[in-house]
Design brief:
- The complex is a heterotrimer of chains A (354), B (85) and C (400).
- Helix content of chain A is 32%, strand content 21%.
- By secondary structure, chain A is an alpha/beta fold.
- Chain A folds into 2 domains: 5-215, 3-Layer(aba) Sandwich (Peroxisomal Thiolase, Chain A, domain 1); 225-353, 3-Layer(aba) Sandwich (Peroxisomal Thiolase, Chain A, domain 1), CATH 3.40.47.10.
- In chain A, the strands form 2 sheets. Chain A has a 10-stranded mixed beta sheet with strand order 4-3-5-7-1-8-12-11-9-10, sandwiched between helices. In chain A, strands 2-6 form a two-stranded antiparallel sheet.
- In chain A, helix 2 crosses helix 5 and helix 3 packs antiparallel against helix 4.
- By secondary structure, chain B is mainly α.
- Chain B has a single domain, classed as Orthogonal Bundle (Non-ribosomal Peptide Synthetase Peptidyl Carrier Protein, Chain A), CATH 1.10.1200.10.
- Chain B contains 4 helices and no strands.
- Chain B has helices spanning 2-15, 41-55, 65-68, 72-82.
- In chain B, helix 1 crosses helix 4.
- The two termini of chain B are 15 Å apart.
- Chain C has 400 residues and is of the alpha/beta class.
- Helices cover 33% and strands 20% of the residues of chain C.
- Chain C contains 12 helices and 15 strands.
- Chain C has helices at 20-29, 57-64, 74-89, 111-117, 136-147, 163-176, 193-201, 234-240, 268-281, 299-313, 324-327, 334-348; strands at residues 5-13, 34-36, 49-51, 100-105, 154-157, 182-189, 222-223, 225-232, 246-255, 290-292, 319-321, 350-351, 373-374, 379-385, 390-397.
- In chain C, helix 10 (299-313) links the parallel strand 10 and strand 11 (319-321).
- The longest helix of chain C has 16 residues, at 74-89.
- The radius of gyration of chain C is 20 Å and the shape is globular.
- The chains are: A alpha/beta (354), B mainly alpha (85), C alpha/beta (400).
- Chains in contact: A-B, A-C, B-C.
Chain lengths: 354, 85, 400
């Protein structure tokens, strides 16, 4: 089995992250219950003829894929695998509302075509002329991890050498409104610094895209090695600690071997309990960081977590704003990530600096 | 006829989201597809709906659009002859 | 070349039957499931024909034993129905007795409820339960729950019309790599106003019965379906002494990288996908006995796919037919439906007719098999080609 490396990274988020030469040096604070991704100048990445039909999610995906390819010094890849929880939801909403408002008359194709979940992966392939393997996973908070797992298996078996893997989700108006109705979005605005102390139900919703080039060849741009990734549709709280232990054992690791754990806390009083079990339980002596106060909660927010982990490994620095405890590891080598959304679709990822 | 052509130009720009194009940049006989304005088959479907919605002209077969949508001029001619609203 | 992946169970619900047996009977009797729209409240009732499933949502809920508080979309109901059949067909009594996962596929997910309650959500608290059911993964989570799969790998693929074929492909990869011992794979898509109107804007829906590979084809009929297979590793088959229905022998996935919705004129993506699948299966073109074509009956697909056949098989294009004339195009489920049909073809040594075919296309001499044909089959190739350039090929075989 070949090892699998992350050879380049790219992220567009509610922070200034698309410039790879810096790493969370200036944190943008948000006081809201929905936070939007900052737009780079998309014209630098997407020709106007292609951009004219693209909603924000597609633009974020295509732009980050270009940044990732450039950093890996590649023009093409063997496969493109994306994860997206909701796909191109803004176009879906546009089309559904037109169906209802105009009673199924005078509908035009553009928003329908753009609405399919595989639009981002398809547009990237079209843009770079990639005729290779092209997949899109759409499974809530493990959409990105499914893509990561697929890529890892292919690279280990040498079915591909370079794979572009990404997670992308966008915000859309109706989506926001209905999730406020059911308190999946917090009722009140909250300052990002105080997210975990909000004591209220729901999350602060966000959006973004993070893309990576994975390869089974180490290069000068390599950030980290992907040791393992796994996902569970369900995982009762009482089985979480044992689940983590057996995951680590499968990788011949003990809790003490973990230098930092990256947790997906989103400040939802009903579901952060999962993270607290680990942070106050078996991982209480491990350095802990979190990120959803920076990027918001969305189905592929965990791809931002991976981005942050790779950047910490590269810079050997933990930004103050992401610390959950005061523990300072002697080095940032082995990083564990744990995420879940509303008590379902849990994922564990292990990265190691190299 | 001139007014119809101007109307079509601004409608095309708006409907097809041609952000970087202005009305005076489109000549009446510029090809809309291929080398001209660079429209594609998805745009053709958008234009078919425009014919229906704004001028009451129904095309059953997208292939019929090919000749009609050659240029703003050909579109205007066709609309002038066939419009029902 | 590696050995094939064992298929030990199948389940299906489509416009031509509520289980594998009924589907098979319809296939050999030439009984199509295409009709005017009955269940969906749409202004296009008289303009379109579709492949609707007989069961209402209420009937499916009753079958699954769901209480009235459930928030299942039609895709979730159909998926759970078909997946349960597959598991019982594979004689699995305890689904967690070995590492068992689920890979499903859908394009519409909970869109049927979203379009129904889009504005009602703001007025009626009772329907707000469906908000959580919109995203594509929800139907898969519910299928897993119905099958009793816990603490395991459960995921969803959405690659337009090739989705379920890709679910089978990823399932095969998970078994090969040893990540799982057993995986239930397939897809589900209920009909919705969203897809009916969407395909209408593309002007590729026929107002009459679809006629794949016919010169005068007018487009596709949409259909709804769910179909699942149980795939097992060799270890799992041996341990439980399982009967194997057939094997997934080869798989290939490629992108056309040509256009967002149209296939390239010469079928680059389909050609690559078929070539890859042959390579993975260690097979030569002449070893394919039958092709279950994607054959949607749109002008573009059938031309592009036919040309790809010629590129891959040259003068030796095997017997081929599209079964879309029976079921309509069931979108994300199509690859699963046609996987079940391919296994049935192998098991019964029969090639299903391409319904409604009269005139060969003028661009080439290819003629689909228009009549039922009994013939010994060892390998069947099945194509699924979709929007976004997604092309997938699966090869099923009698022998590992």
């Amino acid at each position: 089995m070949k090892p699998v490396y992350i050879n380049s990274v790219a992220s567009i988020s509610a922070q200034s992250t698309f410039d790879n030469s810096v790493f969370l040096e200036d944190i943008a604070e948000h006081t809201d219950n929905v936070i939007r991704a900052m737009n780079p100048n998309y014209k630098e990445f997407i020709p106007p003829a292609a951009a004219r039909r693209m909603a924000k999610g597609i633009k974020m995906g295509v732009a980050t894929s270009k940044i990732a390819l450039k950093e890996a010094n590649l023009e093409n890849v063997d496969a493109i695998i994306t994860g997206t929880g909701l796909g191109c939801i803004a176009d879906s909403e546009k089309f559904v509302s037109k169906i209802i408002n105009d009673n199924e008359e005078y509908l035009t194709p553009t928003s329908f075509i753009q609405s399919t979940h595989n639009t981002v992966a398809g547009q990237i392939a079209l843009g770079i002329g990639c005729k290779g393997y092209n997949f899109t996973y759409v499974h809530s908070s493990i959409s990105f991890e499914s893509a990561l797992l697929d890529a890892k298996l292919q690279l280990e078996n040498d079915e591909a050498q370079n794979i572009l893997v990404g997670g992308v989700d966008e915000l859309a108006d109706h989506h926001i409104k209905i999730h406020k109705l059911v308190n999946h979005i917090k009722k009140d605005v909250v300052n990002s610094r105080d997210l975990l102390e909000s004591g209220t139900k729901g999350a602060v919703f966000g959006e973004g895209a993070s893309f990576f080039v994975l390869s089974n060849e180490k290069s000068e741009t390599t950030y980290a090695q992907v040791l393992d990734v796994t996902a569970y549709n369900s995982l009762p709280a009482e089985e979480l600690q044992n689940g983590l232990k057996s995951f680590l054992h499968e990788n011949s690791l003990e809790i003490e071997d973990i230098d930092i754990v990256v947790l997906g806390n989103n400040g939802d009083i009903d579901y952060d309990t999962y993270y607290n079990l680990l942070s106050q339980g078996s991982l209480k002596n491990t350095a802990q960081v979190y990120y959803k106060h920076l990027c918001g909660e969305f189905n592929t927010a965990s791809s931002f977590g991976i981005w942050m982990a790779t950047k910490m490994i590269r810079t050997q620095r933990i930004p103050e704003a992401v610390r959950l405890n005061g523990i300072q590891p002697s080095k940032i080598g082995t990083v564990l990530l744990y995420n879940q959304y509303r008590g379902e679709n849990h994922s564990l990822v292990l990265l190691r600096g190299c | 006829m001139e007014a119809l052509k101007e109307e079509l130009k601004s409608k095309i720009i708006e409907q097809l989201n041609l952000e970087d194009v202005s009305v005076d940049e489109i000549a009446d006989d510029d090809p809309l597809f291929g080398d001209g304005l660079g429209l594609d088959s998805i745009d053709a479907l958008e234009l078919i709906v425009m014919l229906d919605k704004d001028y009451g002209i129904k095309l059953a077969d997208p292939k019929e659009g090919k000749k009609i949508f050659e240029s703003v001029g050909t579109m205007a001619d066709y609309i002038a002859q066939h419009k029902t609203k | 070349m590696g050995k094939g992946i064992a298929i030990t169970g199948m389940g299906i619900i489509s416009a031509i039957g509520n289980n594998v047996e009924e589907n098979y009977r319809s296939l050999v009797e030439g009984k199509k499931g295409i009709s005017r729209i009955v269940k969906i409240d749409t202004v296009h009732k008289d303009a379109l024909m579709v492949g609707e499933i007989d069961f209402t949502n209420q009937e499916l809920e009753a079958y699954l034993g769901l209480d009235t508080n459930n928030n299942y979309s039609r895709s979730a109901l159909l998926g759970a129905y078909a997946a349960r059949q597959a598991v019982s067909d594979a004689k699995i009594t305890d689904v967690n007795s070995s590492k068992t996962g689920l890979v499903s596929a859908t394009t519409v997910g909970g869109m049927d409820k979203t379009e129904q309650y889009y504005y009602k959500y703001f007025e009626d608290k009772k329907v707000q339960k469906y908000i959580e059911g919109h995203h594509a993964g929800d139907s898969t989570q519910k299928i897993a729950e119905q099958l009793g799969i816990h603490n395991s790998l459960v995921t969803t693929i959405s690659t337009a019309c090739s989705s379920a074929a890709n679910a089978i492909l990823f399932g095969a990869r998970l078994l090969k790599s040893g990540k799982l011992d057993r995986v239930i794979v397939g897809g589900t898509d209920g009909l919705s106003k969203f897809t009916l109107n969407g395909f209408k804007t593309l002007m590729i829906q026929s107002d009459t019965y679809n006629t794949p590979f016919d010169e005068n084809r007018k487009g596709l009929n949409l259909g709804e379906a769910a179909a699942f297979l149980v795939l097992e590793s060799d270890k799992s088959v041996q341990r439980e002494n399982k009967e194997v229905l057939a094997y997934v022998k080869g798989w290939g996935n490629a992108n056309d990288a040509f256009h967002q919705t149209a296939s390239s004129e010469h079928g680059d993506g389909a050609t690559l996908a078929m070539q890859k699948a042959l390579k993975v299966g260690g097979l030569k073109g002449e070893e394919i006995d039958y092709i279950n074509a994607h054959g949607t009956a749109t002008p573009n697909n059938d031309l592009s796919e036919g040309r790809a056949f010629l590129r891959v098989f040259g003068n030796g294009v095997p017997d081929f037919s599209s079964t879309k004339g029976y079921t309509g195009h069931t979108l994300a489920a199509a690859g699963g439906v046609e996987a079940v049909f391919s296994v049935l073809a192998l098991r019964h040594n029969v090639i299903f007719p391409n319904l409604n075919f009269k005139n060969p296309m003028k661009e080439f001499h290819l003629r689909p098999r228009a009549e039922l044909k009994k013939r010994k089959l060892n390998t069947v190739l099945s194509n699924s080609l979709g929007f976004g350039g997604n092309c997938s090929t699966l090869i099923f075989s009698k022998e590992a």
